[in-house]
Amino acid sequence: MNNLINKILLILLSITIIYGCNNSESNNYMLVNGKIDGLRKGKLYLQQFVDSVFVSIDSTEVNNKFEFNLGTQIDEPDIYYLYLDKDDGDSVNDRIKFFGDSGEITINSRLITFDSNAEISGSKNQTLMEEYQLIIRKFNLENLDLLEIYYDSQINGNNKRFDSVNDAINNLIKRKYLYSLNFASTNADYEISPFILTTEVPDANKELLKQVYDKFNDSIKVSKYGKLLMEIISN
Predict the structure, then answer these.
(1) Which of 99, 147, 194, 234 has the greatest number of beta carbons closer than 10 A?
(2) Which pTM was predicted?
(3) Of 212, 199, 219, 213, residue with least CA distance to 97
């Protein structure tokens, strides 16, 4: 009887250990799936940008079907790319950038507008990045309009208009920086915050960068971009 009980306890312990290990792994696993309408033949790659090179982590062949599944173990939320090799010798507009996280990330797009109209869900950092980029695109469009007037006034020798537009461009840059700092401060509990500061406004006033950094919790401070931000502030 005691032997039977011991065997049962041993089996239960083994199941608990196996389940614990699998559960731990799943908590650090990112599954990327979705559908690319119109894609009948090609290869999809899950990539990261490491040391100035795109490194493929996982891949899958696509043959007469639209759906795909890719995955990888991850240490923390970070930037990933979904790259489509259509085997046409043209790599332009074939890479979707997204902020990956553990769990399930869904990317739906179309072959003809692969990178421009992708719908991405499953990551709070990705949602915030899209929100940020929407406003930044407006800043960039406004900047292009001002630059057109800037060069036109320079060519025509209209100094008064040139100075006015130059001031407007400088004010726009300040507004863009303040928006980035405020957005990062508002979302200090997410990895997107130090990512924005290190990639979009790394040359901002270090005191302002430090004020946002001080709002981070410990997990954000020790994250990849949290550490990078601290390096920028310290140098």
Answers:
(1) 194
(2) 0.83
(3) 199
